[in-house]
Automatic annotation (TrEMBL):
GO terms for molecular function: magnesium ion binding; thiamine-phosphate diphosphorylase activity. Mg(2+) binds at D88. SUPFAM superfamilies: Thiamin phosphate synthase. The gene is thiE. This is Thiamine-phosphate synthase. 2-[(2R,5Z)-2-carboxy-4-methylthiazol-5(2H)-ylidene]ethyl phosphate binds at T132, P133, T134, G164. The lineage of its organism: Bacteria, Bacteria division WOR-3. It holds the Pfam family TMP-TENI. Belongs to the thiamine-phosphate synthase family.
Amino acid sequence: MKDILKLYLIADYLYFDENLYNKVKAAIDGGVTAVQFRFKGVDDGSAYEIAKNLKEICAEKGVAFFVNNRPDFAILLDADGVHVGQDDLPVLEVKRIVSGKIVGISVGNSDEYEKVKNMPFDYLSFGSVFATPTKPDAGEPIGLEGLKRLVEITPDVPKIAIGGITEENALSVMRTGVRGIAVSSAIMKSSNPYDSARRLREIIEEGLKR
């Protein structure tokens, strides 16, 4: 699990264009360890076709594939897992639906953690750490101090950080004690996704040495 979570790419439909698949392939070659497809407000037919193609890419390259908030897609595509938010289906129900698959949940503060701490999740995603252009409705950023507090109260839980993470701040994020980072625009909006992923992965590995 810990290696899967190192560099977690959110392939958001916001960045969908004719280069999406090539960007994801390049990012994986650069060091991405997992890909999640997030598709808010997209019709099921279009989303399923894209998700199927992304799953095939991930399977071919040997990295984990997740879908956002759609356990039915996870089953149909035989994805590695599904990620849910605080307002999505309860983790317990998702676990029942996708039996045996990885389930992650987003947590933005200690109150949200208290609500889910006894649920059968496999990992937590903390954030938004910084302001993010990908998810403007993510709420007030928790910052590095807020992230540290969440890490401190979850010592034995696999966890990643998300939200506004770049090459410039990734090392500070890793030094809070998370096992990895999730990014979207830092790679998907890059003119060179391979290089961006490679540099982020190097920073992650440096942060894990602490």
